[in-house]
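Chapter summary example: a protein plus zinc ion.
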Amino acid sequence: MTIGRIDEQQLKETVSFHGHWCPGLAIGIRAAEWALQEMGKSPDEEIVALVETDMCGVDAIQYLTGCTFGKGNLIHKDLGKNAFTFYRRRDGKAVRLVLRPTIYGDTGPLLGKLYHKSETQGLSEEEEKTWRETRAAVSKRIMESDMAQVFDFKAPQGPVPKKARIFGSITCESCGEPVMETRTRRFNDQVLCIPCFDELEKR
Ligand SMILES: [Zn+2]
Ligand SMILES: [Zn+2]
């Protein structure tokens, strides 16, 4: 299977990077497919992805688009939404992709119920089978639907995030570990890392 600019091999690598195949990963693959098509790949910080979830799909975005946490062009806003904003610095193009709830069809409540049961009392063999098959069907639908069926395309909710900057390190006067200077705190006359500061403040 090839999807947009993502070939079979890349799809396999994405699944092995994430660890398993699931609907969440499929969502991320489709978002990455859109980004590669419309924004291009990001060897540096040219493309920025702002993700509003820390779930499965973000792994596909990191693996496929070149927007990674370590480069600073993958930014997580902890809002618990399947929404992904891509920015292109060169011309300011920016689009927010929001998952359409209709992509789950009528399986949403069923999956929710089964998930809850699996966490509390475990699933019977029959339910296990339903769980697997339903998730596989949803993943397939996400992969095969038109892009406009998967996402709503909206305006970004803010300007392009600032470029990642590198700061010097200072040694924490309590634990002795070097810490980025923008993450230090002052307590009396000491310069401390955040955990040491929190520790002292608790006393
Ligand atoms: Zn997953
Ligand atoms: Zn410390």
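Key point: The pocket of zinc ion (ligand 1) is lined by residues 18, 20, 22, 24-25, 56 (CB under 6 Å).
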